[in-house]
Each structure stands twice: as structure tokens, then as C-alpha cells.
Amino acid sequence: MADRTYLDWPFFDDAHRALARDVEAWRDRGLREADHGDPSAACRAYVTQLGAAGWLHYAVPRALGGAPDAFDVRSICLIREMLAYTSSLAEFAFAMQGLGSGPIALFGTDAQKRRYLPGVAAGSSIAAFAISEAGAGSDLSAMTTTARRDGADIVIDGEKTWISNAGIAGHYVVFCRWPDGGERSFVALVVEAGAPGLDVTGTIDLMAPHPLGTLRFRACRVPESAILGEPGKGMRVALATLDVFRTTVGAAALGFARRALDEAVAFARERVAFGKLLAEHQLTQARVADMATAIDAAALLVYRAAWTRDRRGGRVTREAAMAKLVATESAQQVIDQAVQLLGARGVVSGAPVERLYREIRALRIYEGTSEVQKIVIAGQVLS
Q: Taking the model in full, what pTM does it have?
């Protein structure tokens, strides 16, 4: 059983503590393992389960079918952490419902919110966030997908790749730029799966399977009503959304790390080497101490960032970047230590820590690599 004493920290209200207990109990009792041989089908199944249980309501404001009045980042973090402890794909399914609908919740018109968000909260519609390109991942300014006006329509040309939920999403929040270029040329658009001129290929295989693919826009037409926020401020839509969800990536990493520590401790308490339990060897004790300390340090940064966003509002760019950087890097180290402690058992395909070893790696890349987080942090400090 993972340590839960951190729930007594002052970052949380009683409602958060109750939520964590409820999600954990539901996860252990009611989360049905989907067939991960087909990640797309598994993701659909998890979205359905999460919707039926009511957990997806935390991704959407209350007025639109969700639970909180506004985004409560601490709640999202706790749910991601609890799900990640058991199933990375269930956690992924929850997270993408939030990330793929977050721009609509933050910047959408009332009509856009009514059209898309209730289905996301219910689990009847899958959301996606489409910003990455082959030549524009961390460097968003290199984006080449364009949008141009043609009468009452917006016409999109270009390609997005590494897109989570490609092929199964009901809508994509797509980031483009007007042809005139410049920092104020970005625009965010809601593109429905059946839009004319949109071709979706969900065939990118990963070391830890997730539904991932490519979107190709060939004179793809959407109505002008698809614009999110102001037409020239699409980058603001992207960054404000990442400001909310970047912290929660750190929470997912915490879930992975806590599971790895629990697996390592359980093994150390049972395995005998050189005439005594592994847990009695000082080298093992030092390793476990390092793992536990790294997890607590990361958790402090994650929940500080979440508390700051919830209680003080506004941008938490610095805090969110620190939380993601430290939590994902620390989780990689903790999981590596667990594999090392388990020895041969740690590298057996399908073993919990072997699975975690593959699953943690992507978290240090998506929603801004660790290197980008350092640039962000330095920029905030130096300014």
C-alpha cells in the first residue's frame, strides 16, 4: 500500500482527501482491466468506465456537466496519481479527456462548451489536443500548419503528429497559424472527426502502447465558429491549457513512482540474500531512503503548484514547470532503482516495474521536455 500521509499536508481540503480515498477504493474494486493489445479499444473502454463512475466530471466545470465550479488542479492531480498507480492507460484516458477539452472550458463560447463538454464529462465522447508536428514539438514557434479564411469557413492545411487519441476522438483542438506569420498569428480551432479534408491515421507504435497517430489536413473546412478565443491568440490558449495540465503530468509520475517503491519494498522484505533479508542490508536501506525522499520532494512541488493555481489563480508557469521537471525525472530514477533492486525479476516482460520502466519515459518528453522546463524556469527567474 502506497504511503498516503501526504494527504495530511495543508495543500488539501477534506474534500480532496475524501476524493483520493474514493478514487483509490473504486480503482481497486471497480477498474476493469482492458485489453491493451488494442490501445484504441482499451482507451475507449477506460473512458466509458471513468465516465460511468463520475471521475471525468472533474475535467469539466460544474455548469457543463462536471464536478468543480472551475478546474480544480489538486483534484485532477489526485485522480491521475491514483489511476497511474495501477493502470497507465486508464490514467492516460482520464488525462486526455481533460487536456483535449481544457481549451474549450477555458476559452470556448457558451455554444462550444454546450456542444462538446457534456459528452466529455459523461465519457460518451473522446477528446484530443493536436499541437505537435514533425518539426515543431518543443519549439511551437516552428509550427507550419496553416489556417486561412474562405468566405464563412476556415480552411486548414498541414499535418499534426504524435497526437494522442488520433482515430478515436470525437473532436480535436488543433493549433494553426494564419499565413501572415508572426507571434500573433496563432489560432486554436475545434475540428470534429468527420470534418471534410481531415485524414486520421492512428498507427504510431510506442514502447508503452497508447492510441497515437497523425492528422493530415488537406483543405480541411471548418466553420468560423470553430475558433477558440481570439483568432490571433491561439498560443495563449495552448499555454494557458498547459499551465493547468503540466502539473498533473507530475502527479501521474508520482503514481508510477509510488508503485515502483511499493514493489521494491515488498520484494526487499521477502528476498533473502547472503543469509538475511534484502531489507536488512544497508545498501538496500540507502536505496529505499533515496527513493522515498525523491517521491516526497516531487510531491511537494506538484501539490504546491496545484494549490497555487487553485487558491490564487492566474498563471503558475514557473511552479508547473518545476513540478513536471522534478516529478518526472525523479520517477525515472525511482523506477530504475526498483528495477535494479529486483534484479532479474525487474526486467521480465510484463512485470510491474518493467512496465513502469517503459511507461515513465514518455512523461519526460510530452507537454514539454525536461530541457524545455529548464528553459521555462530560467526565463521566469531571470525575468
A: 0.93
Q: Above 70 in pLDDT, residue 117?
A: yes
Helix (H) or strand (E) holding 304: helix 282-312
For 191-207, what is each residue's pLDDT tens digit? 999 999 999 987 788 88
Residue that terminates a domain, selected from 212, 232, 252 = 232
Measured in residues, the chain has a length of: 383
How high is the pLDDT of residue 69? 62
In eight-state DSSP terms, residue 343 is G
CA–CA gap between residue 59 and residue 105 (Å, rounded): 9
Residues 225 and 269 in one domain: no
How high is the pLDDT of residue 30?
80
CA distance 164 to 214: 9
pLDDT band at 183 (very low <50, low <70, confident <90, very high): low
Neighbours of 207 (CB within 10 A): 9
Indicate the pairing of strand 153-164 with strand 171-177.
unpaired
Check whether residue 277 and residue 369 sit in a common domain: yes
| CATH number of the domain where residue 112 is located | 1.10.540.10
Cell 538475511, residue? 276
Letter for the amino acid at 49?
Q
| Judgement on whether residues 340 and 259 belong to the same structural domain of the protein | yes
Alpha-carbon gap, residue 222 to 163, rounded angstroms: 19
The domain boundary, picked from 232, 267, 302, lies at 232
Catalytic residues: 367
Question: Is there a single domain that holds both residue 336 and residue 244?
Answer: yes
3-class DSSP assignment, residue 102: helix
Distance, CA of 168 to CA of 295 (rounded, Å): 34
Residue 9 has pLDDT above 90, yes or no: yes
